[in-house]
């Protein structure tokens, strides 16, 4: 197994920023990573220390819940899949040494590296043709043993399509998903987590977007005990565009987490990040961390990220941390926003004043809050199914 040497790590660096040893004696001269792009990366799990929850990338996660996925041995056997086929979308299995594996990105943390070190074959979803098409893969019945998976989604130049990755049933899964968007392509990828109530799913998504290409990446997390989907997007060539959307509904005892990274690395690139979630029930928890890096070559960048959380009951917790790094002053615009709050009393009063019962008024407010994301999927059948799933969440039927 080979590992990739990082360009920069948080290794001891004497003298940086004027740091020097104190006269009292020796000390830890380790200098923290100075920018988001400098995090250590490797495809070899042995290159990462075992997870104890003190690490920056794990400090908001319930690491004891999935220690078998980060520190244990896991199966990389090929799972049984349900395919939802379409003309212009081919699904096949490829070997670990295929040149496309690693082309979009490589792990920055141990769970991702454990999956990379363990998978036997990668699932390849190839999208070709300029006509609109919808295809997908459903994984179900994965069982309660820890598993690894690797998926590559490749959109050919000037192709168009929507790919849905859906998970249902029992699972203890750590995986990597690579998304390669060719020049002029327009691709939508929906990651839909509808796992059983005890399901655990850790996922790292890596996307590389080519010249004048667009990716719409949508994360929908409804089911599972612990779900952690972290998308990382590299706007690698001029005119690349990413719309990163997220929708989550955390119930009692459920932990739903997203750490989103957008790397503007080329001129005249654009990004829009919008994640919205609702929380209800004791112990419901959501975590959203948004990192946007505008590199020194990314002149003309247009970027904005936001996270909104709607708290429905007491006993919930929503962590929301937007971060923005700018290395060039020649940009069109960049900004970020975060908000967590309860119902808008004025909205509820307005609806109730028109004869709508309070419970129904609350349901309408929540539905309206989350529908902004659902309506951007672009497939009527999937949107209708998600609306029904949200209604079930609000009614406590899931």
Automatic annotation (TrEMBL):
Region (Disordered): 1-28
Residue ranges, compositional bias (Polar residues): 1-11
All copies of domain SUF system FeS cluster assembly SufBD core, residue ranges: 148-369
SUPFAM superfamilies in the cross-refs: Stabilizer of iron transporter SufD
Single biological process term from Gene Ontology: iron-sulfur cluster assembly
InterPro entries: Fe-S_cluster_assembly_SufBD, SUF_FeS_clus_asmbl_SufBD_core, SUF_FeS_clus_asmbl_SufBD_sf, SUF_FeS_clus_asmbl_SufD
Protein family according to the UniProt entry: Belongs to the iron-sulfur cluster assembly SufBD family.
Protein name in UniProt: Fe-S cluster assembly protein SufD
Gene assigned in the entry: sufD
């Amino acid at each position: 197994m080979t590992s990739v040497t990082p360009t920069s790590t948080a290794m001891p660096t004497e003298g940086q920023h004027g740091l020097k040893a104190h006269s009292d004696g020796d000390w830890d001269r380790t200098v923290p990573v100075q920018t988001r792009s400098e995090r250590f990366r490797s495809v070899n799990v042995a290159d990462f220390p075992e997870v104890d929850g003190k690490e920056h990338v794990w400090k908001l996660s319930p690491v004891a819940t999935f220690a078998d996925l980060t520190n244990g041995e896991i199966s990389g056997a090929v799972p049984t899949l349900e395919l939802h086929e379409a003309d212009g979308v081919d699904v096949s299995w490829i070997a670990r040494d295929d040149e496309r594996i690693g082309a979009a990105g490589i792990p920055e943390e141990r769970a991702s590296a454990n999956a990379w070190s363990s998978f036997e074959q990668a699932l390849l979803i190839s999208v070709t043709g300029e006509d609109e098409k919808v295809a997908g893969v459903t994984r179900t019945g994965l069982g309660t043993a820890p598993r690894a998976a690797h998926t590559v989604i490749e959109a050919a130049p000037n192709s168009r399509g929507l790919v849905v990755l859906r998970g249902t049933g029992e699972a203890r899964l750590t995986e990597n998903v690579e998304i390669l968007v060719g020049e002029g392509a327009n691709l939508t990828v929906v990651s839909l987590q509808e796992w059983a109530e005890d399901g655990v799913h850790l996922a790292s998504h890596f996307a590389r977007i080519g010249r004048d290409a667009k990716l719409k990446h949508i994360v929908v997390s409804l089911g599972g005990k612990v779900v952690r989907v972290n998308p990382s997007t590299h706007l690698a060539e001029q005119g690349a565009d990413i719309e990163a959307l997220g929708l989550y509904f955390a119930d009692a005892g459920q932990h739903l987490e997203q750490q989103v990274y957008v790397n503007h690395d080329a001129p005249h690139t654009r990004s829009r990040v919008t994640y919205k979630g609702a929380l209800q029930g004791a112990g419901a928890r959501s975590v959203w961390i948004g990192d946007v890096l505008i590199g020194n070559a990314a002149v003309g960048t247009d970027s904005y990220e936001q996270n909104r959380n709607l708290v429905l009951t007491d006993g919930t917790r929503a962590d929301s941390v937007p971060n923005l790094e700018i290395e060039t002053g020649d940009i069109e615009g960049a900004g970020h926003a975060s908000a967590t709050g309860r119902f808008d009393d004025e909205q509820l009063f307005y609806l109730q004043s028109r004869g709508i019962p309070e419970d129904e008024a609350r349901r309408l407010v929540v539905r309206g809050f989350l529908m902004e994301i659902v309506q951007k999927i672009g497939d009527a059948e999937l949107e209708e199914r998600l609306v029904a799933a949200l209604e079930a969440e609000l009614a406590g039927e899931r």
